[in-house]
Design goal:
This is Tripartite motif-containing protein 16-like. Strand 14 and strand 15 form a beta hairpin. The strands form 4 sheets. The chain has a 7-stranded mixed β-sheet with strand order 7-10-19-12-13-14-15, with no helix packed on it. Helix content is about 35%, strand content about 20%. The protein is built from 8 helices and 20 strands. It has 3 domains: about 100 residues, Classic Zinc Finger (Double Stranded RNA Binding Domain, 2-Layer Sandwich), CATH 3.30.160.60; about 160 residues, no CATH class; about 180 residues, Jelly Rolls, CATH 2.60.120.920. It is elongated, with a radius of gyration of 48 Å. The chain starts with a helix and ends in a 7-residue tail after the last strand.
Length: about 500
């Protein structure tokens, strides 16, 4: 306690409010008087508590700028608020130029404004929570992109390592084949070389003997030796034995052809794994209404997965959720009797026409809506629906599906550009206006799995287990966009990471 009192009556430091009545070194002011327009330390403020003359003076926490509380015209304390001019005035101003204005006591006006401030604060806190939620979602998406990219990098590194290892193995095999041919031919050549060298040595020795015999003067000796030396030695005929000239031109040609074919194959196949440039969103500092960040961007997001060797097909819900892809409904495609809510994650049937601006991508006859995100790769999402038995259609479609008119070319499942699961008390699948009946129990939560490169589209009933409703095997030639048809009730895009 003593330490606290000592602190209250200490000398003023830079930035502190000084006592106006201290002489010499100023002490730190404790309170300010709005009548005296002066600040007092603990010692000098006592008179305001002890003397009846100061009883009506209003003391507040020590503050600077007391002169700012005075009317610049009348030099009086401003205690009135003029609502007409929205400014603080003194009582003389109220009696003079503000006498016909709407005025109120400053304290009363503060109370009213305090209520308004609470509402503003509440809205600000709500906006802050929304921003934090968006930040959390963005961070989660960033982490998903990082994990996906890292997985793709690891897969590509592994594949290229295996490819290089395979090429190195073939290189070694070709080298070994060439060396084996070389060894076989050289072995035969060395054997022939040794034989020829021996024959040359013998022939040189015989030539020497014949030369000596030709110079002998002993006729009897000459005749006796002549017969034996004139008989040629029994050597194997080597005139027809030659070393085959090995030509590796065919090997070189084959390898050159392989190089060209491999290069062409790589250029052709690598075109399939190039990612298209994703348009960047422009900065928008305006407060969002119902649209999300991706909607304000004004572009559809195309998410493309690099084609890798086939992975095991997901079986459990946890397996599918590894490929979960968040979707956002596109308001520019929305039929005029539907409305969006919950940050464009929910669509509801309104019945009455809503006032939406004309847009070339808006469905003008069928009660349908598309999502903004285009998908190419492995993607999974879930939806919940409830519309009192009327049913909904959960679909995927190419972006260039027709939007205007009442023909099948605009209806999900009625053409070659869309695939649609019709959900009600029973299920059926539609593509190119052909219906396939599905004998499965109805489900109010549907999971959709797409493997674009494999040409697989699967629909599941989601509960404690994953119940396969229908699978399509085809070839997708464009990115796919999720779409929905409904005529009653509501449909909601689910976020499995957020508890219901």
């Amino acid at each position: 306690m003593a330490e606290a009192m000592k602190t209250e009556d200490c000398f003023a430091e830079p930035g502190d409010v000084e006592c106006d009545f201290c002489t010499g070194r100023k002490r730190k002011a404790r309170e300010s008087c709005l009548v005296c327009l002066a600040s007092y330390c603990k010692t000098h403020v006592k008179s305001h508590y002890q003397s009846p003359a100061f009883k009506r003076h209003k003391l507040v926490k020590a503050s600077t700028g007391l002169q700012e509380k005075l009317c610049s015209k009348h030099d009086k304390l401003m205690e009135i608020y003029c609502r007409t001019d929205q400014t603080c005035i003194c009582y003389l101003c109220m009696m003079d130029e503000h006498k016909t204005h709407d005025t109120a006591d400053a304290a009363a006006e503060r109370t009213e404004k305090q209520g308004q401030l609470k509402k503003v604060l509440r809205k600000s806190e709500q906006r802050l929570q929304e921003k934090e939620k968006k930040l959390h979602e963005l961070k989660r998406n960033v982490n998903t992109v990082k994990r996906s990219a890292q997985s793709a990098v690891e897969d590509s590194e592994r594949i290229f390592t295996e490819l290089i290892r395979s090429i190195e193995k073939k290189r070694s095999e070709v080298t070994e084949l060439i060396r084996d041919q070389e060894k076989t031919e050289l072995s035969a050549a060395e054997e022939l070389l040794e034989q020829l060298e021996q024959e040359i040595t013998d022939l040189k020795r015989r030539n020497t003997e014949l030369e000596q015999l030709s110079h002998t003067e002993d006729h009897i000796h000459f005749l006796q030796i002549f017969q034996s030396v004139c008989v040629p030695p029994g050597y194997k005929d080597t005139t027809s034995t030659t070393v085959q000239h090995l030509s590796f031109d065919e090997v070189r040609k084959s390898l050159s052809d392989l190089k060209v074919q491999f290069k062409e194959f790589c250029e052709k196949e690598f075109c399939k794994v190039k990612l298209p440039e994703i348009p960047k969103c422009k900065e928008d500092h305006e407060e969002p209404q119902l649209s999300s960040e991706s909607e304000r961007c004004g572009h559809s997001k195309i998410v493309v997965a690099v084609q890798m060797p086939s992975h095991p097909k997901p079986k459990t819900r946890e397996d599918f959720l590894q490929y979960f892809f968040p979707l956002t409904l596109d308001p520019s495609t929305l039929y005029h009797k539907l409305s969006l809510s919950e940050e464009n994650k929910m669509v509801t049937w309104r019945g009455g026409a809503q006032r939406y601006p004309d847009h070339p991508e808006r469905f003008d006859h069928w009660p349908q809506v598309l999502c903004k995100e285009g998908m190419s790769g492995r993607c999974y999402w879930e939806v919940e629906w409830d519309n009192g038995g009327w049913g909904v259609s959960i679909s995927v479609s190419y972006k260039d599906i027709c939007r205007k008119g009442d023909g099948d070319k605009c209806a999900f499942g009625g053409n070659s550009k869309s695939w649609s699961l019709e959900c009600s008390s029973i299920h059926s699948f539609w593509h190119n206006n052909i219906e396939t009946k599905i004998s499965a129990p109805p489900s109010s939560r549907i999971g959709v799995y797409v493997d674009h490169s494999a040409g697989t589209l699967s629909f599941y009933g989601v509960s404690d287990t994953m119940t396969l409703l229908h699978t399509v095997h085809t070839t997708f030639t464009q990115p796919l966009y999720a779409g929905f048809w409904m005529k009653r009730g509501m449909l909601k895009l689910c976020d499995p990471n957020v508890s219901d």
